[in-house]
Amino acid sequence: MSESLIDRLAAVVGTGQVSIDPDVLDGRCVDYTGRYRGSATALVRPGSADEVAAVLLACREAGACVTVQGGRTSLVAGTVPEHDDVLLSTERLNHIGPVDVTERRVRVGAGATAAAVQRAAADAGLVFGVDLASRDSATVGGMAATNAGGLRTVRYGNMGEQILGLDVALPDGTVVSRHSEVRRDNTGYDLAALFVGAEGTLGVVTELELRLHPAPAHRVTAVAGFAELTPLLVLGREFRDADGIAALELMDARATALTAEHLGVSSPVAGEWLLLVELAGDTDHTERLAEALESADLAGEPAVGLDPSTQRRLWAVRESIGEVLGIHGPPLKFDVSLPLSEIEGFATAARALVAEHAPDAIPVLFGHVGEGNLHLNLVRCVLDGAAERALYAAMMALIAKHRGNVSSEHGVGSRKRDYLSMSRTDADIAAMRAVKAAFDPDGYLNPAVLFT
C-alpha cells in the first residue's frame, strides 16, 4: 500500500476516516463466525456516493483490491479480504429519509441497519418486509448485495422484492442512480436487479429506495411440536401458500435444548421437531390456524399466542438460536436451499455425515421451511483445516445430491465459491463472468467473492 494512495484516500474522505492501524484492521479481517481470517492494509469510510466512487477510482488506478464491508454479518466469509485489500466500509452511509406513507416507500443509505429501517417504518404505521436475526447489525446494502431472505420471506419475498431503486458506485468511479416515481417502469435493462445478489462484485450500493407494506391489523402465532419430521413438512406445505402466512420456521430439539440450557429459554411445547407458524392480515386467522393444527399429527398440544406479549414469548426460542450457537466456539455453518420433499432425507443423511467426520459435533437444524431454506450449524465442531475442508466438500455434495442449492439467503462469498458449479452450469458461470468483466475488467472489486 503506497503512501500516495493513502494520501489520496484521505483527501477524498478526510484523514480521520482512513486507518492503517494494525489493531483496527485485524478486527475487520475476521468474519462473523470467527472461523475465517484475511488481511488488509487500510480501512476507508466514505460518507457519500461520490466519495465511494472516488475511493474506487483511486484504488483502481493504484492497482489495489477493494473489499466492501457493511455490517460484516456474512456467514460465508463474504467480507474477508484475501489480497491485502483496502476495506471500504459503508457504515457512514446510514441516513434514513422521510417515509412516504402515501406511496409506502423510503430512501435509506446502504449502511443503515435493518432494525433502523424497521423502526422508521413502524413509526409511520408500516412494515419493512425483511427481518433477520442479525437485524441490529446487518445493513440494507449488504442485504441487497446477497438478496437476503429471513423470517418474513414467505410473506413478503426476498430483499430484491423490496427494492424500488438503487444508487450504485461502479468500479470505474461513476455513479448510477436508478429510480422511478411510477410503479411500473419497463424502460430498458433492469439495472437495479443486476446488482441485487451480485455480492458487491459489480459495484457498491450506496443508497436504496425501499418498498414498505401495510401493517396487518391481526396476528396469531403458534408453536407446534412433532415426533417426526414428515408431519411437520406436510403442515408446512399446507401453510406456505396460505393466505395470510407471515412466518413459517422449523427448529429441531437440539436447538431448543441449547437455548434452554444456556439462555434459560425453553421450548413452549415438546417434540423432536418444532414448527412456528404465524398468520397475519386484515382479518383474524385464529380459527383457521386452529383447524389446521387440529388435523395435524402433533406430539402434544400446540402453544398459541393471540396477544403481542405471548407472541414474543413464542418467538423467543427461534430468536435465541443464533445467540446460543457460538457457546462452544465458532460453529461451522451451512446455509442451503432444498425442495421440501428432500428435507427429511437430507436431515437424516446430514446427521450421519457429521457423525462420520466430526463425531463430537452437535448438528443443529433450523430455518425458513416455507422456502426450504435451512441453516445447518455444527456446534462444538473442532477440526483442522484439511478435515474441515473434507467435511465441507462432502456436505456440499450431499446438498447437490438432494437437488438443493449450495447457497440460499447468505450468498456464495468466498467460502462457497469452489462449489458454485454444483448449482450453476458452466454456461451460466461463463455468462456471470462476462458481466463481471464488463463492469470490473481489472477484477479489483471484491475479488475473493463468488468466483475462484
From TrEMBL:
Keywords: FAD, Flavoprotein, Oxidoreductase
Keyword Nucleus: no
PROSITE patterns, alphabetized: FAD_PCMH
Pfam family, one: FAD-oxidase_C
Keyword Flavoprotein carried by entry: yes
Gene3D superfamilies: 3.30.465.10, 3.30.70.2190, 3.30.70.2740, Uridine Diphospho-n-acetylenolpyruvylglucosamine Reductase, domain 2 (3.30.43.10), Vanillyl-alcohol Oxidase, Chain A, domain 4 (1.10.45.10)
Origin superkingdom: Bacteria
Domain FAD-binding PCMH-type span(s) in chain numbering: 36-215
Cofactor dependence: FAD
Entry's family note: Belongs to the FAD-binding oxidoreductase/transferase type 4 family.
Protein name (Swiss-Prot/TrEMBL): FAD-binding oxidoreductase
Organism from which the protein derives: Mycolicibacterium arenosum
